[in-house]
């Protein structure tokens, strides 16, 4: 029992939607010149923060 799992939470800074980081609830979009980004399924913002 030496390994400890850390659960990261991601939250939309625009509307407050929250779900586990990397969860299927988040949308993934491809943005030219920026690459793959996470998008909020509620307000479509890409201003997402992740915390432990």
Rounded to the nearest angstrom, the distance between the terminal CA atoms is 21 Å
Spatial strand order of the main sheet: 2-1-5
Question: What is the count of helical runs?
Answer: 0
Overall mean confidence score, pLDDT: 90
Counting structural domains, the number is 1
How much of the polypeptide forms β-strand, as a percent range?
35-45%
Unreliable sequence segments:
none
Question: Which structural class matches the secondary elements?
Answer: mainly beta
How are helices and strands ordered from N to C? Answer: EEEEE
Radius of gyration: 13 Å
Structure description:
The chain has 52 residues and is an all-beta fold. Helix content is 0%, strand content 40%.
Core attributes:
52 residues, mainly beta, 3-stranded antiparallel beta sheet
Can you describe this structure in just a few lines?
The chain has no helices and 5 strands. By secondary structure, it is an all-beta fold.
Q: Helix and strand layout, with pairings?
A:
Layout: E1 9-12, E2 18-20, E3 27-31, E4 35-39, E5 48-51
Antiparallel strand pairs: 1-2, 1-5, 3-4
